[in-house]
Amino acid sequence: MSVFLVHGFRWARNDIRIHVVLQEVDNAAPNNLMSGDSEEAMNENFRDLYPEPMANLPPLRFIEPLNPNNEKFKYPSEPYAFVADVVMQSEDYIDVTKTMNQCQIPAAQWDAMADLRDILAKGEKIGWFVVHNGDRELAKQERLEKEEHGVRCTDNEEDAVEVRCTEL
User: Fold this and answer.
1) CA distance 5 to 115
2) What is the Cα–Cα distance from 145 to 117, expressed in whole angstroms?
3) Which residues contact 73 (CB under 8 A, 6 or more apart)?
4) What distance in Å separates the CA atoms of residue 153 and residue 148, rounded to the nearest whole number?
5) What is the pLDDT of residue 93?
6) Three-state secondary structure call for residue 76
7) Is the dihedral of CA 119, 121, 126, 132 positive or negative?
8) H or E element, residue 149
9) Max CA-CA distance within the chain?
10) Is residue 151 scored above 80 in pLDDT?
11) Rounded mean pLDDT of 65-83?
12) Is 67 helix (H, G, I), strand (E, B) or coil?
C-alpha cells in the first residue's frame, strides 16, 4: 500500500478516456495511467499538443487512487486520476507541511499547471493532495523507480525529502 503526496489536479476518468481515443494515444491505457508506458505516452502526447505549458513542467506523473476494499469502484476504474508535477511516495506516512515547505513550486511551473488544468479539467482545484493507492505491486515498482529518478528538494541530507521537482 502506498500513500502519495501530489501537487496537481484531478482529471475525470471519462475525460481521460475521451482524450486517449480522440488523440489516438496508442500506448496509453486510460484505466491505468500509472503504468510506465501510459505515463510516457501521455507525456509525449501533451508535449506535442501543449508545448507551451509543458516546456515549464517536469515530466508529469498520473497518480490514481485505489482502495482495494472499495466495492463501489474496482481498479482500474476509479472516477478520476491526478495529473501531478510533484510526487512523493511513502509506504507509511508523509510529513505534509515539511514536504510542502521544502519543495516550493516556481511561479512558471504553477502557471503552466494552471494552463494545462484549464485545457484538461477546467474548474478543478490545483493544490496538494494525499492519495492512497493500495496496489502492492505498484508500491514495489514505484519504490524502485523512486530510487532511480528521485530528486531532493533540500541539500540537507538529514531533512531531505524524495520528490519529483523541477529545476527551473
Assistant:
1) 21
2) 26
3) 67, 79
4) 16
5) 81
6) coil
7) negative
8) helix 136-149
9) 47
10) no
11) 74
12) coil
Q: What is the per-residue pLDDT for 77?
A: 60
Angle value at C-alpha 5, between 118 and 161, nearest 5 degrees: 125
- Higher per-residue confidence, 91 vs 166: 91
Residue in 15, 46, 42 with CA at minimum distance from that of residue 26 = 42
CA distances from residue 34 to 37, 93, 113 in whole angstroms, order as listed: 8, 21, 19
pLDDT tens readout for residues 30-66 = 988 988 899 999 999 999 999 999 999 999 999 998 8
Rounded to an integer, what distance in angstroms lies between the CA atom of residue 55 and that of residue 35? 23
Position 154 scores a pLDDT of 38
Q: How many CB atoms are closer than 10 A to CB 76?
A: 17
CB 12 within 8 A of CB 79: yes
The pTM of this model reads: 0.79
Say which residue the cell 481498479 belongs to: 75
Strands (E), the chain: 2-12, 61-63, 80-90, 127-133, 151-152, 162-163
Specify whether the CB–CB gap between 139 and 10 falls below 8 A: no
